[in-house]
Amino acid sequence: MLLSLHLFFLMLYLRLGHTSLPLVINTWPFKSATAAAWHALQSGGSVLDAVEKGCARCEMDQCDGTVGFGGSPDETGETTLDAMIMNGNSMEVGAVADLRRIKNAIGVARAVMERTEHTMLVGESASVFAENMGFAAEDLTTNESLNVFSQWLKGNCQPNYRKNVSPDPSTSCGPYGPKAAQTQCNGERQVNIHSHDTIGMIAMDTDGHMAAGTSTNGLSHKVPGRVGDSPIIGAGAYADSSAGAAAATGDGDIMMRFLPSYLAVELMRNGADPSAACKSAISRIKRHYSDFFGAIICANTTGHYGAACNKVPSLTEFHYMVADSESDTAVLKSVPCF
Q: Where are the beta strands (DSSP E) in 58-166?
């Protein structure tokens, strides 16, 4: 009888446990990033190495124009970068925001974690730190980003993200000043899923060590100095090897107010499966902003994973990538939005 119970619980553990570790999961169909992270793990690298290599690949590939140099120019036409990386074992974090002149934002974020006692550096000071750490200073502008900026100017600086201000009446462009009326100067803003986007990545090894990271060039036509959710711990990503990891993407100005990645990890800590944790994190935001654009990926300590997204006209299904020992390659996954 005792032997039978032992076998029963062993079989239950094998069913509930995951036999496909290590694991890499990232937002969007960024296959080259998944492959780079997977190769890092297979080559004996750590989960931090995997997240850094995966996000860096996306930075160099300029994934979807929303990660890395040459994308999402701000109101002045400049591209700036945000990134973070988190060690789920030690709970150490490195993050950079409004980074200028440096292409490898995720690398700088890791340098903040490993070369300082700080958690986040921002703006020009972050760029100077990066240069002091040996990162090359390069122009992040490309012909494509110049063209995006030029077309925006020709369109009277629309869309923009100012509200309750008075623009130049002849162009709708700045300089801007405050006005009393509580109306947005550019009317109803349309959601463009390619104007603000992120690679969020989770890596887990066979020993259960977890790491998470993000990299983005932010929001097209943003007000200079704007920082979204990506480099904010618990918003853009969060990892705790004793509970799970999560990473988010989408309308960062809204999503960062709810710390969805932290919430999802805490839900998994309390027993929620990854899909349910992801859905709950999205639902929390929907209660206040029903039409926000966003999605989240989650993985728990057994290597099970899931995703969820908010359904809007431009996003009815969310695509993400997974690599594990079963596939041994990057596989495209999708989840219907709700």
A: 81-87, 93-99, 120-122, 165-166
Annotated ligand binding at 229? The verdict is yes
Q: Is 17 annotated in some ligand binding site?
A: no
What is the C-alpha separation between 293 and 167, in angstroms, rounded?
Answer: 27
**Per the structure, how many domains does the chain have?**
1
Asked whether residue 64 is assigned to any structural domain, the reply reads yes
227 is in an annotated binding site: yes
Q: Is residue 169 part of a domain?
A: no
Q: Which domain holds residue 313?
A: 19-141+195-336
Q: Answer whether residue 8 is part of any domain.
A: no
Active-site residue numbers?
A: 198
Residue where the block lists tokens 């900026």: 149
CATH of the domain at 112: 3.60.20.30
Residue 197: φ, ψ to 5°: -160, 165
Q: How far apart are CA 1 and CA 315, in angstroms?
A: 53
According to the annotation, is 251 in a ligand binding site? yes
From first to last of the 338 residues of the chain, give the pLDDT tens digit. Answer: 554 554 444 344 434 445 589 999 999 999 999 999 999 999 999 999 999 999 999 999 999 999 999 999 999 999 999 999 999 999 999 999 999 999 999 999 999 999 999 999 999 999 999 999 999 999 999 999 999 999 999 999 999 999 999 887 777 898 898 886 444 444 444 445 555 578 999 999 999 999 999 999 999 999 999 999 999 999 999 999 999 999 999 999 999 999 999 999 999 999 999 999 999 999 999 999 999 999 999 999 999 999 999 999 989 999 999 999 999 999 999 999 99
Domain annotation covers residue 89: yes
329, 323 Cβ separation under 8 angstroms: yes
